[in-house]
Design goal:
CATH class of the largest domain: Alpha Beta
Strand content: 25-35%
Helix content: 10-25%
Number of strands: 44
CATH superfamily of the largest domain: Aldolase class I
Oligomer: single chain
Shape: globular
Largest sheet: 10 strands, antiparallel
Number of domains: 3
Length: 702
């Protein structure tokens, strides 16, 4: 008992030291764990330090109330308070700096959430008025600095990541040099950063050491958020301006209508808060991105699927608008005869056969299709767009004989009715959801691909529900209703959709339409290269339909390999043998060939977490990463893509992937597509990389 008391006192003393408040001339330090918030009452700015080293300096908050922009650095001296913290994320200390401008300025509460052993802190800003009356804001930046912040070495390999708002229009992620220069040879290859914006999150990292900052929003119930930054001249590698803020609209957020950009909706209340933001400094930016995903998942837990992988077929990749009842039945039969229970295809025994375009069928035929799939030991899937009206007729009755017309689903954008999208909060829209989901359930569909979802997050002049004032609020409202109507036994897979919020669906297509050519594989892998971490906010990254088509063997192998890194295998060729749009027999031969490799299918089903080997070496026309690795209990798996850059001979130093070559059993290790034994020389994996071809190496541990 005495030992326990001494240990308890020692822990209390250590905790007190870790959570100390230090007063210095003109500054106040509050520390917890690895982080220190240093408040300068002369400049009304904050410095953020990790383990005593400066990460960001001269940080202030910037915000709008009504049409007026304010900044805390122009306020008088703030009041700093601290209190113990125990929230969803963990234990630590909450530091609040309150700026009271009297009756003339809004009250600002700038909060920092420090955790006892985290490589990050969280922050947000809350606005209010002395009078207690309501105020409105459509822009709050908890982090704003124009200081030269240098937390990386001076290096041309310093990069920053641009993350797209959604996955529409073949948009790509970007890894751009932080430096800018007039002489391309003086900075890293690629476009030179000037003013750039990344939606929700970015990483600023060194390509060689992997050290980097991850900064972005971790709550997504109210705002569209972004990070805007300006790099440095030449190769100095610093940031000259950084702004992490809530309240972004942009052509890339799909808020431009009829050539006019709609501003972000104003949030109203007696207290208006920004999204909560994460600022982290990590030895490895990839760990930082995964940590960022985990923190998001803490605030809005993902739907968990009790399966290792997803398998099946979808009609759009090959049949497109020609999907028909007889043809769909024949596809189910083809899968039953040629894929099911063969080569470890769908080893969990669940296969989803999906109708993407189903206008050529009536409800009776759809129901019979579901039953046919069940008789074949499969589940049936369907496609829907809940936030779009593709016909544009206001007088048309909303489906379900509910008395509504489509005029009652509309919103106005910039004063004009938007006929292409519906209001997620309108009773007519909710009634439409009821009708279709009830129909899908009655038929027995167990998988719904939801498309063009960004339409539900667009800003508008107003919404039916007066408490909803922003596009993300409307999206959350509608998605929550949709999820509850679907229940927990239907897989929900987002197609075109915002990155966040993510807690309503099981999977999200990581890129836009990707078929079989190498250009499409490299495009899809660009999204995976910098968005692999999304498998921690969704259960799965969906690589889209795996189409073989008339492409080469190398391209076919590369396309199937994308299923390994995502654990998601949905075939896309027209596999029908009957009906009005019979498929090419060659596609059927390819499906039976490429999707029954046991060693490949075993890897798909292992649900490994494949990481990019680096973030600064880009390859192919879509600037993708070409090398990925993951660790299993018994082996390491290395995947290398050659994105059409010619035949290459490769000597890969395994230590750069954190693999000790001395621990590898060369007698069992192999390239999984060919079965060839590996060639390991002096700690290097030596192999050829044919044009357009993916290599998959499984290195077994001794």
């Amino acid at each position: 008992m005495k030992t326990d008391n001494r240990l308890r006192k020692m822990l209390m003393a250590l905790t007190a030291m870790a959570m100390a408040t230090v007063m210095q001339a003109g500054t106040t330090d509050v520390s917890c764990g690895k982080w220190t918030v240093r408040y300068d009452d002369a400049t009304q700015t904050v410095a953020l330090l990790k383990n005593g080293e400066n990460v960001l300096s001269d940080v202030s908050s910037k915000f709008k109330v009504g049409a007026t922009m304010y900044q805390t650095s122009s306020y008088g001296k703030g009041t700093l308070t601290e209190e113990a913290l125990n929230d969803e994320v963990g234990r630590g200390k909450k530091v609040a700096i309150t700026y009271d401008g009297g009756n003339s300025l809004p009250i600002v509460e700038q909060c920092f959430y420090l955790y006892s052993n985290a490589d990050y802190l969280l922050t947000d800003v809350t606005l209010s008025l002395t009078s207690g009356e309501k105020l409105a804001s459509n822009y709050i930046a908890p982090i704003f600095t124009e200081a030269q912040n240098l937390f990386l070495p001076k290096d041309a390999n310093n990069r920053f990541l641009t993350v797209p708002f959604d996955n529409d229009g073949f948009v790509t992620y970007g890894s751009y040099p932080l430096s800018r220069a007039t002489n391309p040879s003086s900075a890293a290859s690629g476009r030179f950063a000037r003013d750039s914006i990344s939606f929700e999150v970015t990483a600023i990292f060194n390509g060689e050491t992997q050290k980097g900052m991850v900064i972005g929003s971790v709550t997504h119930d109210t705002w569209k958020s972004a990070v805007r930054l300006t790099g440095s001249p030449l190769t100095q590698g610093h940031i000259s301006r950084l702004e992490c803020f809530s309240g972004v609209t942009h052509a890339a957020t799909r808020d431009e209508h009829n050539g006019v950009l709609q501003p972000h909706g104003a949030v109203r209340g007696t207290r208006v808060s920004s999204a909560r933001m994460m600022v982290g400094l990590f030895d490895d930016w990839r760990t930082g991105m995964e940590t960022y995903a985990d923190v998001n998942n803490t605030f809005a837990p993902r739907r968990e699927l009790n399966v290792n992988s997803i398998w099946g077929w979808n009609s759009w990749g090959g049949m497109e608008k020609n999907c028909n009842y007889t043809g769909a039945l024949s596809v189910s039969d083809f899968i039953k005869e040629h894929l099911q229970d063969k080569g470890h295809f769908a080893p969990d025994g669940i296969i989803y056969v999906g109708l993407d375009s189903w206008d050529n069928m009536n409800w009776e035929e759809r129901k019979k299709f579901v039953q046919h799939c069940k008789e074949n030991g499969q589940e049936a899937g369907i496609y829907w767009t809940p936030w779009n009206d593709w016909y544009g007729s206001d007088s048309r009755a909303v489906e379900g004989n509910n008395g509504y017309t489509y005029s009652q689903t509309r919103v106005k954008v910039n004063g004009r009715v938007h006929t292409g999208r519906v209001d997620p909060t309108a009773p007519a829209t909710l009634s439409r959801i009821n009708y279709y989901i009830d129909k899908f359930k009655d038929c027995g569909f167990k998988y719904i691909k939801l498309d063009f979802m960004s339409a539900g997050a667009q800003e508008a002049d107003g919404f039916y529900n007066p408490d909803i004032t922003t596009g993300i609020q409307a999206y959350n409202y509608g998605m929550n209703y949709l999820r509850e109507r679907c229940g927990d036994d239907i897989i929900l897979d987002l197609s075109i959709s915002p990155l966040f919020p993510a807690n309503y669906c099981d999977a999200r297509r990581i890129s836009c339409d990707a078929w079989g050519e190498m250009w499409h594989t490299s495009y899809m892998m660009n999204s995976y290269s910098f968005g692999w971490w999304l498998n921690r906010v969704y259960s799965f990254n969906d690589p889209d339909h795996l189409v073989m088509g008339n492409r080469s063997e190398a391209e076919n192998i590369s396309r199937v390999t994308t299923a390994i890194v995502t654990s998601y295998c949905i075939l896309g060729d027209n596999l029908s043998t009957a009906g009005s749009a019979i498929g090419d027999p060659g596609s059927q031969v390819k499906a039976a060939k490429y999707f029954t490799y046991e060693k490949i299918n075993d890897l798909i089903n292992m649900r490994l977490n494949f990481r990019p080997a680096y973030g600064h070496k880009l390859s192919g026309v879509n600037n993708s990463i070409d090398l990925f690795s993951a660790e299993a209990d018994d082996s390491y798996v290395i995947v290398h893509f050659n994105y059409g850059v010619g035949n290459k001979n490769v000597e890969l130093d395994l230590s750069t992937l954190g693999i000790d070559a001395a621990t590898i059993d060369t007698g069992r290790s192999e390239e999984c597509w060919t079965g060839d034994r590996i060639n390991l020389q002096g700690g290097k994996l030596v192999y050829s990389s044919p044009n357009d071809r993916a290599r998959v190496f499984r290195l077994y541990k001794k």
